[in-house]
Design goal:
- With 460 residues, the chain is α+β, with helices and mostly antiparallel strands.
- It has eleven helices and seven strands.
- It has two domains: 243 residues, no CATH class; 152 residues, Heat Shock Protein 90 (2-Layer Sandwich), CATH 3.30.565.
- Helices cover 64% and strands 10% of the residues.
- The protein has a five-stranded mixed β-sheet with strand order 1-2-3-7-6. The chain has a two-stranded antiparallel sheet with strand order 4-5.
Length: 460
């Protein structure tokens, strides 16, 4: 009975923290169930696996207890990994990255516990090995509990903030090559960890501690490699988005230059109209004047003179993209009402530029009369943007099923060769202002909707 309790409690205390913190880098919307229900299910499943593992170790089967314990734990971790991959709706690369980071935490704790256990046993003159059918000693259980209590607050903060930010920022498409390096090095690392665990029972303390030091160095090396690759991936993505932003700004400046040139031409044309009307008046050609004025009145509704709202940046972007749309016979209905805001023009360019580009591209593929409907307004201290556009179909990521509800940017996959960054750029910019972005495709009505909310009180 004592062995059964030690195995169950030891496995539960060792594995439970990893099973919970593995979900922390992902936002709650990325999980199929809510946080409270998820953590309750994780605790229950871990407790059940702890009992089953302990029952197996304490059965009448009497093989090498160390091998059986490692094999059983490996099987249990495989089951929990499968559940984790199913529950989290993110790209496979992101999920694998977080899993290996959690494995590193578990390995680091394992190193610390075994090193301390060996040192304490050497100091007290007792055997560090478990006896009978117990894979854990009371000393080891207490050390796992103590190290978890000391390390977890820092690990939770690190995963929720730093790693969570990296996971949101990285582009999985650019990490496929790096994942092969990480995969092989991590597999070798895990094999080394299990080999060292088996060696714990068969070699002298001094030799074992030397191997532990080597193992700790390899662990630090692996963590450094992960950090460098994550940082490089984020930097690469920022550079790509910066180039895209600069291109959008260049297009804006070109539009402004065209507006200036259009104004110059309008002044020149106006002078010509005055001369023509003056000549007609001198000749007394009233019918000719009426016809000429009627022609000018029909041409007075000019696209370049439209004013959608009093915000110069928003108005310029709307004029630019509605002009592109109308050149391709895409109808645009704009309802905008917003003035000066504490939002950077460059961020407005990312939001409206990406949203309108996606809408125009979808309308190009639409079989019928394409339409883009834009609603922009302020509600209390928030800027609200909704863009509805005709859309034939969308591509969902594998972890998301099609549906009529609103989904995060990660749910959709670009149909462009090499992928795209539009929706994720919108989402990142919205989060920068304490807001949100969500998207929906109505398959029945063939309409794609983007809803964006920004907090205008955020000071950057």
């Amino acid at each position: 009975m004592a062995d059964f309790l030690k195995n169950a409690i030891g496995f539960f205390i060792q594995v439970l923290p990893c099973n919970i913190i593995i979900f922390l880098p992902f936002p709650e919307g990325s999980c199929r169930i809510g946080r409270k229900r998820l953590f309750a299910a994780v605790i229950s499943a871990t407790a059940l696996l702890s009992v089953l593992l302990s029952a197996l170790l304490c059965s009448d089967i009497d093989p090498d207890i160390a091998f059986l314990a490692d094999f059983s734990m490996l099987c249990a971790l495989s089951l929990m990994l499968a559940a984790y991959i199913y529950i989290v709706r993110e790209s496979v690369i992101k999920k694998v990255l977080v899993f290996f980071i959690i494995m590193f935490y578990g390995a680091l704790q394992y190193c610390i516990v075994n090193a301390l256990s060996g040192f304490i046993s050497k100091f007290l003159g007792i055997s560090p090995l478990s006896t009978g059918h117990a894979a854990y000693t009371v000393q080891g259980i207490l050390l796992y509990f103590a190290t978890s209590a000391l390390m977890l607050p820092f690990v939770v903060m690190f995963l929720s903030r730093t790693i969570g930010e990296y996971i949101r920022e990285i582009d999985p498409h650019n990490m496929r090559r790096d994942m092969f390096i990480l995969m092989f090095s991590t597999i070798a690392f895990i094999v080394m960890m299990f080999g060292l665990d088996l060696a714990y029972y068969y070699m002298e303390y001094k030799l074992y501690m030397m191997l532990m030091v080597i193992f700790a160095v390899v662990l630090v090396y692996q963590i450094t490699i992960y950090w460098l690759i994550l940082r490089e991936s984020v930097r690469s993505r920022h550079e790509t988005e910066q180039k895209r932003l600069m291109e959008l700004q260049r297009l804006q400046y070109e539009q402004i230059a065209d507006d200036i040139e259009s104004t110059r031409r309008m002044h020149h044309d106006l002078h010509h109209h005055y001369n023509t009307l003056g000549n007609m008046l001198e000749r007394g050609d009233l019918d000719g004047m009426k016809g000429y004025l009627s022609k000018l009145r029909d041409e007075a509704v000019m696209r370049d003179s439209r004013i959608y709202c009093s915000n110069a940046a928003v108005n310029g972007l709307l004029r630019y993209y509605t002009g592109i749309a109308e050149d391709e016979n895409i109808r645009c209905d704009v309802y905008a009402e917003c003035g000066e805001m504490n939002i950077e023009p460059s961020d407005l360019t990312v939001l409206l530029g990406n949203a309108m580009e996606n809408a125009i591209n979808a309308c190009r593929k639409y079989h019928g009369e394409p339409l883009i409907e834009i609603h922009i307004g302020t509600v209390m201290d928030s800027l609200a943007i909704e863009i509805n556009n005709s859309c034939t179909e969308v591509c969902y990521n594998d972890s998301y099923g099609s549906g009529d509800g609103f989904l995060p940017a990660e749910a959709f996959r670009s149909s462009r060769p090499g992928g795209g960054y539009g929706l994720r750029s919108i989402d990142n910019t919205a989060q920068k202002y304490g807001g949100s972005a969500r998207f929906r495709f109505n398959a029945e009505r063939k309409i794609f909707t983007a809803q964006i909310r920004l907090n205008m009180n955020i000071r950057l």
